[in-house]
UniProtKB/TrEMBL annotation, chain A:
<dbReference type="InterPro" id="IPR038739">
    <property type="entry name" value="ARMC8/Vid28"/>
</dbReference>
<dbReference type="GO" id="GO:0005634">
    <property type="term" value="C:nucleus"/>
</dbReference>
<protein>
    <recommendedName>
        <fullName>Armadillo repeat-containing protein 8</fullName>
    </recommendedName>
</protein>
<dbReference type="InterPro" id="IPR000225">
    <property type="entry name" value="Armadillo"/>
</dbReference>
<dbReference type="Pfam" id="PF00514">
    <property type="entry name" value="Arm"/>
</dbReference>
<keyword id="KW-0677">Repeat</keyword>
<keyword id="KW-0963">Cytoplasm</keyword>
<dbReference type="InterPro" id="IPR016024">
    <property type="entry name" value="ARM-type_fold"/>
</dbReference>
<dbReference type="GO" id="GO:0034657">
    <property type="term" value="C:GID complex"/>
</dbReference>
TrEMBL record, chain B:
<dbReference type="InterPro" id="IPR013144">
    <property type="entry name" value="CRA_dom"/>
</dbReference>
<dbReference type="Pfam" id="PF10607">
    <property type="entry name" value="CTLH"/>
</dbReference>
<dbReference type="InterPro" id="IPR006594">
    <property type="entry name" value="LisH"/>
</dbReference>
<dbReference type="InterPro" id="IPR006595">
    <property type="entry name" value="CTLH_C"/>
</dbReference>
<dbReference type="Pfam" id="PF08513">
    <property type="entry name" value="LisH"/>
</dbReference>
<protein>
    <recommendedName>
        <fullName>CTLH domain-containing protein</fullName>
    </recommendedName>
</protein>
<dbReference type="InterPro" id="IPR024964">
    <property type="entry name" value="CTLH/CRA"/>
</dbReference>
<feature type="domain" description="CTLH">
    <location>
        <begin position="79"/>
        <end position="136"/>
    </location>
</feature>
<dbReference type="InterPro" id="IPR050618">
    <property type="entry name" value="Ubq-SigPath_Reg"/>
</dbReference>
Length: 702, 244
């Protein structure tokens, strides 16, 4: 059978030719290896497995020795150029290749060869090194050493684009700390980079923009110096490049400006520039290549956490544009992930953005719903009234279509896309209106979401739990769907995960799931969890898990008096665990959730209140101060509120044991501490303090 | 050098405040007088010519022009010959040769440009099919192209389209015949040419054609407002008498 590769030697054969004694055979084989692997990931991998990298690195090393022995030999230079090019290609966009090149010891040899007199050798070597420096595996360059800094400056000053580009890549990859950023600034690097921005070639400009962004990241000091009068008109040169004709240059200039704005918000406040950035990035989405893939990530970093920018982006029809790209289908996974994350950021704060997103997918709905904020639960049943949204029949028609769009992303083969879909869903479901309308508690969404609980990737699991946390708040009728598809049992299983982030997120979802749920559902969750497991979660080594476990208890015992019995099950295992945790609370949040749990227990009967009292006092032990006084003196107003709430419940005038408990509290100095708080800066605290003092007066205290 | 539409109009002395009702007539003398008032530096014109010669790859002409006019090219003339050799190889169907030449020029070009790499490999496949080497074509598609299709949906579709050429006995007369057309080679060749130019930090298109487009656009705009000596023949640039 004739073969396309019949004229071509097989990889293994080529490899043996690399060791040939004949220089011509050897150099031809070297060139052939290079030509086979360039642009071809599959070939890189197969040559790598055959051990081609050490062989090529060996040729490079031998040829260096030849250079020192007999100067200026064409053959030698050819060996150097071909082997450096092959090594560079192995390292190009391929981490396994980078690792192999480093392991083969080629790196120091390549560095040495930058001083070679032959231009072609220097070009090939600089390219190979730059490929290595595109990877995270590249060896860290120590800028703080004087001689390294001098070497770097010599690279940047080179007339050769490949060499100055290498200098910029080294900065982009290796500069991490503020100290290093400052050292680069002090060495005058920014001035050099700026001159490349203004007078350099296309590739020099791009490389310089990347390095600048690295040196600016989270460093307002360096930025203000750069923007100062010392260095010409630096910011305006970057702003100009954001309008450059080359898409990649536009993207890099935008990213640089975003880094500047995120580190020093007082720069680039002009609304014109902000709008411009949004428009440029949205336009770049149309680029079919890598630039278009990265554009949504840059967009996210521009608008994340910033309502003003999210508003501008909404006005620029960002949501429509993203939706349009998703609808087109067959997106590169990186781009798909980026667009979903950008949508997540768009919908993270503003209701108007969520409404826009859902106007693609709403169903009709009428009636009034009462719902508290999803992630935050108050003692007892505090609920807020949200106006109902009324949607037209036409809007409802697209419901299925766009729910499917989200569900598609949840079941994508790429883990990054699945995680991004969850994060997007979490963001959209922050909306109380949408949740209460029950758009999300349906099989289209819940079934794929619950399947992600068992995803092989931890980040997908965590993101799925995050979205679930919001969705399960969905009221009354819809919760049964979640139980029916096994979601609840899965959550309990995940609370046993080895990963603390999975444990805490599973508990978070359970906490929201039982929020204001009916007794039967809470009993179901509790019997699945068991008292001993829940108490072990309260004592988990990870503070975030402790916090969520305590918050779960708080929500479980909220409401009906029978539910309070949960904490007394198995000889009061849970109550004991709460007490111990409050005694040594490592952060305010643990105290807050623990105190609210006790507060809810103290809302029960006399027996319950006495048990709480006992907990507050027996835990004092030989320490001078009760944790109650410590909490009352905390800087955290929520912790103060939770603690005073508990005292309110313990001293409720309608209960017979109240005077006795009040006496105990007075003796422990707690009442006098509360008296000091009548003018607490937090209104919530102030109100509760007045309630306690009022109740205390009712029992004859002055 | 960058010329914007409005500046260009103004530099030619176009009058923009013309009454809508009647077109203003500009006589040939008046027009030529105004044209003479526009000063364009000789060096700029020379740069424009050099830019055209360099970008289009007329290396010998560029060399002569450099000696005669003293205009320095903005790119090393030696690299032009290399680039032209690549372009020519694709145009002649020697794609493998072209790939090797590109890699010698700068290995990064094909390593960082998957689309171009795919199109070159696709062109190789087309050449194999054109030459009737069916078995080879199949094996090549399987070994070299299929992995690229797995990485990218668009590539997969293009690959399927190309491979379906094999289903036709008379490929030149089949619905996908355009793939075998010489224009497909030219398309691939110009894609490689552009990528090489970009890698050399050079614009991928010469400026002169854009200027001519600008001239046509400006004349079309002006036609609505005035009658003037128009340039209809771009190759000799004669001014036609205004038609009233």
């Amino acid at each position: 059978m004739p073969s396309a590769t019949v004229n071509k030697p097989r990889p293994s054969e080529l490899l043996s030719r690399l060791t040939s004694a004949e220089p011509e055979v050897k150099v031809r084989a070297l060139r052939e290896v290079k030509n086979q692997i360039i642009g071809n990931r599959t070939k890189k991998l197969s040559f790598l497995k055959l051990g081609a990298v050490p062989a090529v690195a060996g040729i490079l090393a031998d040829s260096i020795d030849d250079v020192t022995e007999n100067n200026n030999c064409n053959n030698t230079n050819n060996f150097l150029v071909q082997s450096a090019a092959a090594l560079g290609s192995f390292a190009c966009g391929f981490d396994a290749g980078v690792q192999a090149v480093l392991d083969a010891g080629a790196f120091p040899n390549l560095l040495r060869l930058l001083a070679n007199p032959n231009e072609k050798v220097v070009d090939a070597v600089a390219r190979a090194l730059r490929m290595i420096y595109q990877s995270k595996l590249a060896p860290k360059y120590d800028f703080l050493q004087q001689k390294n800094m001098e070497f770097l400056i010599s690279l940047l000053n080179s007339e050769k684009e490949t060499v100055s580009g290498l200098g910029a890549s080294i900065i982009t990859r290796s500069c991490e700390t503020n100290l290093e950023q400052k050292a680069l600034f002090d060495a005058g690097i920014l001035r050099k980079l700026n001159s490349l921005l203004e007078g350099g070639s296309l590739s020099q400009r791009d490389a310089s923009l990347e390095s600048l962004a690295t040196i600016f990241r989270n460093n307002p000091e360096v930025i203000s110096k750069f923007a100062g009068p010392e260095i010409g008109r630096p910011l305006s040169s970057i702003i100009d490049l954001a309008k450059d004709r080359y898409p990649r240059t536009r993207l890099l200039a935008c990213m640089c400006l975003i880094v500047i704005r995120n580190a020093s918000p007082h720069f680039l406040q002009d609304i014109g520039i902000k709008t411009k950035l949004i428009h440029i990035l949205l336009e770049l989405l149309d680029d079919p290549g890598q630039v278009g893939d990265e554009a949504p990530f840059a967009f996210s970093s521009l608008i994340a956490q910033k309502e003003d920018l999210q508003k501008l982006a909404l006005e620029a029809n960002a949501i429509d544009k993203f939706h349009h790209h998703i609808k087109k289908g067959s997106l590169h996974p990186r781009r798909y992930e980026g667009i979903l994350l950008a949508l997540a950021d768009m919908c993270s704060k503003l209701e108007s953005c969520r409404t826009k997103f859902l106007s693609l997918q709403v169903c009709f709905f009428s009636g009034t719903n009462y719902l508290a904020q999803p992630n935050q639960v108050k003692p007892w049943s505090h609920s807020r009234l949200w106006p109902p949204m009324v949607f037209t029949q036409q809007q409802s028609l697209s419901l299925l279509q766009v729910l499917n769009l989200v569900a598609d992303a949840l079941t994508d083969y790429n883990a990054g896309v699945r995680a991004a879909a969850c994060i997007c869903l979490k963001s959209v479901t922050r909306s109380i209106q949408n949740l209460s309308a029950g758009y999300f508690m349906n099989e289209t969404i819940v079934i794929p979401l619950v399947q992600l609980f068992l995803d092989p990737s931890t980040s997908v699991q965590v993101a799925a739990l995050g979205a679930t946390s919001n969705i399960v708040v969905d009221f009354r009728t819809h919760r049964s769907i979640f139980v029916q598809c096994g979601g609840m049992k899965q959550l309990v299983q995940l609370a046993k995960s080895m990963e603390s982030s999975v444990r805490s997120n599973a508990l978070w979802a359970l906490k929201n799931f039982v929020f204001q749920a009916d007794n039967r559902l809470k009993e179901g969750v509790f019997s699945e969890l068991t008292a001993s497991f829940l108490s072990s979660l309260i004592r988990d080594p990870e503070p975030s898990v402790q916090e969520q476990a305590l918050a779960l208890v708080r929500n479980l015992v909220d409401g009906c008096i029978n539910l309070i019995e949960f904490v007394f099950a198995e000889d009061g295992l849970i109550l004991g665990a709460i007490g111990r945790q409050l005694q040594c609370a490592s952060k305010a949040e643990i105290g807050i959730q623990g105190m609210y749990a006790l507060c809810n227990v103290a809302s029960g009967n006399e027996f319950h209140r006495e048990a709480v009292m006992q907990l507050l006092f027996t835990q004092m032990g030989d320490k001078n101060q009760s944790f109650v006084v410590k909490f009352l003196q905390s800087n955290d107003s929520q912790l103060r509120t939770a603690t005073v709430w508990t005292i309110v419940n313990l001293t409720c005038p309608s209960s017979p044991g109240a005077p006795c408990r009040l006496e105990k509290l007075r003796n422990a100095g707690i009442v006098s501490q509360i008296k000091n708080m009548v003018n607490d800066p937090c209104v919530d605290v102030k109100l509760r303090v007045r309630t306690v003092l009022g109740q205390s007066m009712a029992f004859g205290d002055n | 050098m960058q010329i914007l539409g409005a500046d260009f109009l103004a530099s030619l002395g176009y009058n923009v405040d013309i009454e809508a009702t009647s077109k203003k007539v500009i006589t040939r003398e008046e027009w030529e007088k105004r044209l003479n008032d526009v000063k364009i530096r000789k060096e700029d014109m020379n740069k424009l010519v050099m830019n055209f010669l360099v970008t289009e790859g007329y290396v010998e002409a560029a060399e002569k022009f450099r000696m005669e006019s003293g205009t320095e090219p903005d790119i090393d003339l030696a690299t032009i010959s290399d680039r032209m050799a690549v372009k020519k190889a694709v145009q002649c169907g020697n794609v493998e040769d072209a790939i090797e030449k590109v890699n010698d020029l700068n290995p990064e070009i094909l390593d960082t440009n998957p689309q171009l790499f795919f199109h070159l490999q696709q062109q190789r496949l087309i050449e194999l099919i054109r030459n009737g080497k069916i078995e080879e074509a199949l094996e090549f598609a399987q070994e070299e192209l299929a992995p690229r299709g797995e990485e990218n949906q668009t590539f997969l579709e293009e690959l399927e389209r190309t491979v379906s050429l094999l289903a036709f006995e008379d490929v030149s007369n089949c619905p996908l015949g355009e793939l075998l057309d010489i224009s497909q080679r030219l398309k691939t060749a110009s894609e490689v040419n552009a990528a090489i130019l970009t890698s050399q930090s050079h614009e991928k298109d010469p400026k002169l054609p854009s200027l001519l487009k600008m001239l046509i656009w400006a004349q079309n705009q002006l036609d609505e407002k005035a009658a003037y000596p128009r340039i209809n023949n771009l190759s000799n640039a004669t001014l036609e008498d205004p038609t009233v």
